[in-house]
């Protein structure tokens, strides 16, 4: 037996060659043309043929094989990565006997090739038996003779005297007993008068041929009469020795087949053409729970119920497909057999139709076996091949695969990947003093601690010894890697207990980043190792980035976050106020509160620390500080009798707080302030993130009597639908429109539209960023009288703003009413 593998990829050939190793002699070719030439030479029994090949694809190769008389009878099994029923149907229509999809299950490949080889062997044996029978029929010896009424020979076709050693010429005139023997002559005479004239029954007799051998024959006699007198008879003798021998051989073959079916490890069930069971071998009886007698006549679904291994839904039995589609059908890989007692077995193999001697479909046979243990073992072996035996963490093999995937995903989505190399400090001392058993237990506990400190999608791997690797995929901010490193150090700093003994561990961690430090996983590992070594040198129990610049930047940022938190807690922040002026009368009608942070004697721009506060979760405490400080300053303005409404800016996280209105009301009450002196400013984007929640909060603020402004109006969503739905009091025209309104007609048109919109909806207006008198004049002419900007005042500390409000006149336009 021989197998030919045709595939243009060498690795695929190796996989298939390993799968069929030992089943037969294996040949291989890397192209369709070379495969055809090799096929004529080795005349393979089975061809494993790839479909997608350059030049001559698998379908063309199959067509050529079937067209060549030398290779026409080989069994072609298509092997492909294509998915879909249409490819399988095309493969079978092209003359293929089976269809294997990649990725390949090597056990399935081997089983199917084995079955086709076995089928080829049986086919050859049957073909040889048919040829033998044909030869017997073609050369069937037949003795034909005529005997007169005296039973004297008158004719014989035995020219050479092969039957009785007497040639036909010499036999003429001889008496019947002289030729066939006395016993046979008596038998012939008895049969001659047993039946009707022309229908005497055939009978068997044994004769000695010319070589002295015994021939088993079948004889027939036909009487001939003339009037009332016998005129003689015809004697026909055929040699049925071959038939006798064939019957004995067939009996032996049938007995061998019975023993084989009873002895093989596969279950075999035969059905009639209606799918009713006619036979089960002992393995099938054991696997289904049905005996052959009980199953006879039952439907295949009743005896062999199948379900889908994933969904549990009933699955179509392959016998039905084999009968309806008249082809060999493979069983689904996740098929489960439900035994008669309810137990479930994972099974696989195939069904095929059976034809009678006329070629008509007479039934089907399904051959299957239990793969439960094999599948479980495969899963276990796969897991063991990819995981560390001690900690059950992924090993280097699985880490490499996941790193490849993470790098590909990060490249597509413009994200970062971080690799953290963790080495336990002084762990060898524990192994040498406490013993390796204790060390192994500690490593298992370390693995659990590290897993608990990571996201579900992160990968942690044990490289061996006391070294672990953490892979952080799909991260947008490189600082996240530093946060994770600190979290892991904190987790390892907690006390470990083994058999009531305390152990204190620490670790040194090196961090490398993709694509900042390296664009491949080997480079990432090397750089993480270098960073880890630096952490060891700097005193251990710490982490280091491979990039010193990035590490310095993250350390500065981390320190800045700590100082900002301290400033919020200790009151190290300042409130500045910028006036809102009614330019018609030169009167300050409101203030906007703006937070300032004096860090190391220098005022830090809010653009620097507000986003930082949002990222690190400090924006809500910062907002609470602003609310308290503004209310405290408002109380002083009330005491000085110069109070005007003050607006505060709310971040998205503050506005999302369900307790916002209650917190504001409580703070106002603690300073004995009326609610109309406090206003809130919210951006458009914050409002539309959750329309229902925003509407609820705005209504709660409105009930308190707190006015709401839309800050930077016109730069965001700017939808009439939410303006109509929300209880909004003020629109603030963004300074980006005011800045170029005198030179850009589009900006002027937008401002005009906003003013008209506010007028229609009965909302107040405030123009931001007014720095030129011409801008103020144009805005006033367009209908906006309340302005805010450097033309009137920069944001001022509270004391300076208090002095400004105490002046009898403001901006020299008109006295402030008492």
Automatic annotation (TrEMBL):
- Give GO terms for biological process: phosphorelay signal transduction system; regulation of DNA-templated transcription
- Which Pfam family is one of this chain's hits? GGDEF
Response regulatory domain location is 2-117
Which segments constitute the PAS domain? 253-326
Q: Which residues form the PAC domain?
A: 201-252, 331-383
Q: Which residues carry this modification: 4-aspartylphosphate?
A: 50
Q: Where is the EAL domain?
A: 557-809
GO MF terms on file? catalytic activity
Q: Where is the GGDEF domain?
A: 415-548
- Recite the UniProt keywords alphabetically: Phosphoprotein
Tell me which domain of life the UniProt entry assigns to the organism this sequence originates from.
Bacteria
Per its UniProt record, what Gene3D superfamilies does this chain match? 3.30.70.270, 3.40.50.2300, EAL domain, PAS domain
What name does UniProt use for this protein?
Response regulator receiver modulated diguanylate cyclase/phosphodiesterase with PAS/PAC sensor(S)
Name the species this protein comes from: Rugamonas rubra
């Amino acid at each position: 037996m021989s197998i030919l593998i045709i595939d243009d990829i060498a690795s695929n050939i190796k996989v298939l060659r390993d799968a069929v190793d030992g089943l037969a002699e294996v040949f291989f070719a890397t192209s369709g043309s070379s495969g055809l030439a090799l096929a004529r030479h080795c005349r393979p029994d089975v061809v494993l043929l790839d479909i997608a090949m350059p030049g001559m694809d698998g379908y063309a190769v199959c067509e050529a094989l079937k067209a060549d008389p030398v290779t026409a009878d080989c069994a072609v099994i298509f092997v492909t990565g294509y998915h879909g029923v249409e490819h399988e149907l095309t493969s079978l229509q092209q003359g293929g006997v089976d269809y294997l999809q990649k990725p390949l299950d090597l056990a399935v490949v081997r089983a199917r090739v084995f079955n086709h080889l076995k089928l080829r062997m049986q086919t050859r044996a049957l073909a040889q038996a048919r040829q033998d029978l044909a030869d017997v029929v073609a050369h069937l010896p037949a003795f034909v003779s005529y005997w007169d009424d005296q039973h004297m020979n008158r004719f014989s076709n035995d020219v050479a005297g092969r039957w009785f050693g007497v040639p036909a010429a010499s036999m003429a005139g001889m008496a019947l007993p002289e030729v066939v023997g006395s016993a046979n002559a008596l038998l012939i005479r008895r049969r001659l008068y047993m039946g009707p004239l022309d229908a005497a029954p055939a009978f068997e007799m044994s004769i000695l041929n010319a070589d002295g051998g015994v021939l088993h024959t079948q004889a027939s006699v036909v009487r001939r009469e003339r009037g009332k007198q016998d005129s003689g008879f015809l004697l026909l003798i055929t040699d049925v020795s071959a038939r006798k021998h064939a019957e004995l051989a067939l009996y032996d073959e049938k007995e061998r087949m019975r023993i084989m079916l009873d002895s093989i490890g596969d279950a075999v069930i035969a059905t009639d053409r209606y799918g009713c069971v006619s036979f089960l071998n002992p393995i099938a009886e054991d696997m289904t729970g049905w005996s052959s007698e009980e199953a006879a006549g039952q439907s295949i679904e009743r005896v062999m119920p199948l379900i889908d291994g994933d969904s549990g839904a009933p699955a179509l039995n392959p016998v039905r497909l084999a009968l309806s589609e008249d082809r060999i059908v493979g069983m689904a890989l996740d098929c489960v057999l439900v035994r008669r007692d309810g137990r479930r077995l994972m099974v696989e193999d195939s069904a095929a139709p059976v034809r009678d001697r006329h070629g008509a479909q007479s039934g089907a046979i399904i051959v299957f076996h239990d793969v439960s243990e094999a599948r479980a073992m495969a899963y276990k072996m796969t897991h063991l091949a990819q995981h560390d035996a001690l900690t059950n963490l992924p090993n280097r093999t699985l880490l490499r695969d996941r790193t490849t995937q993470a790098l590909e995903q990060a490249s597509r989505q413009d994200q970062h990947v971080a690799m953290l190399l963790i080495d336990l400090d002084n762990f060898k001392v524990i192994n040498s003093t406490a013993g390796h058993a204790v060390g192994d237990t500690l490593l298992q506990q370390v693995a659990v601690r590290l897993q608990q400190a990571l996201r579900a999608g992160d990968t942690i791997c044990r490289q061996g010894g006391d070294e672990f690797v953490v892979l952080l995929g799909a991260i947008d901010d490189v600082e996240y890697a530093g946060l994770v490193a600190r979290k892991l150090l904190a987790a390892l700093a907690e006390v470990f207990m083994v058999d009531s003994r305390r152990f204190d561990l620490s670790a040194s961690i090196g961090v490398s980043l993709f694509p900042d430090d390296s664009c491949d996983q080997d480079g990432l590992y090397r750089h993480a190792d270098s960073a880890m070594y630096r952490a060891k040198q700097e005193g251990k129990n710490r982490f280091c980035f491979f990039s010193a610049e990035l590490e310095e930047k993250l350390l500065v940022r981390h320190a800045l976050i700590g100082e900002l938190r301290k400033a919020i807690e200790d009151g190290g922040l300042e409130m500045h106020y910028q006036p809102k002026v009614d330019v018609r009368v030169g009167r300050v009608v409101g203030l906007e509160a703006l937070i300032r942070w004096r860090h190391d004697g220098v005022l830090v721009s809010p653009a620097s620390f507000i986003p930082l506060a949002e990222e690190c979760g400090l924006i809500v405490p910062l907002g609470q500080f602003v609310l308290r400080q503004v209310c405290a300053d408002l109380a002083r303005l009330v005491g000085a009798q110069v109070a005007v409404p003050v607006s505060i800016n709310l971040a998205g996280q503050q506005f999302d707080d369900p307790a916002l209105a209650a917190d504001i009301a409580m703070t106002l009450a603690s300073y004995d302030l009326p609610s109309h002196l406090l206003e809130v400013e919210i951006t458009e984007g914050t409002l539309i993130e959750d329309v229902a929640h925003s509407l609820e909060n705005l209504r709660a603020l409105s009930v308190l009597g707190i006015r709401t402004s839309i800050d930077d109006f016109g730069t965001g969503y700017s939808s009439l639908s939410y303006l109509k739905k929300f209880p909004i009091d003020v629109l603030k025209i963004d300074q980006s429109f005011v800045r170029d309104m005198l030179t850009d007609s589009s900006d002027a048109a937008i401002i005009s539209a906003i003013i008209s919109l506010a007028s229609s909806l009965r909302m107040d207006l405030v123009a931001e960023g007014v720095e030129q008198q011409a801008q103020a004049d144009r805005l006033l002419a367009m209908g906006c009288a309340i302005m805010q900007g450097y033309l009137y005042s920069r944001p001022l500390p509270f004391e300076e703003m208090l002095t400004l409000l105490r002046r009898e006149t403001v901006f020299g336009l008109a006295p402030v009413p008492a």
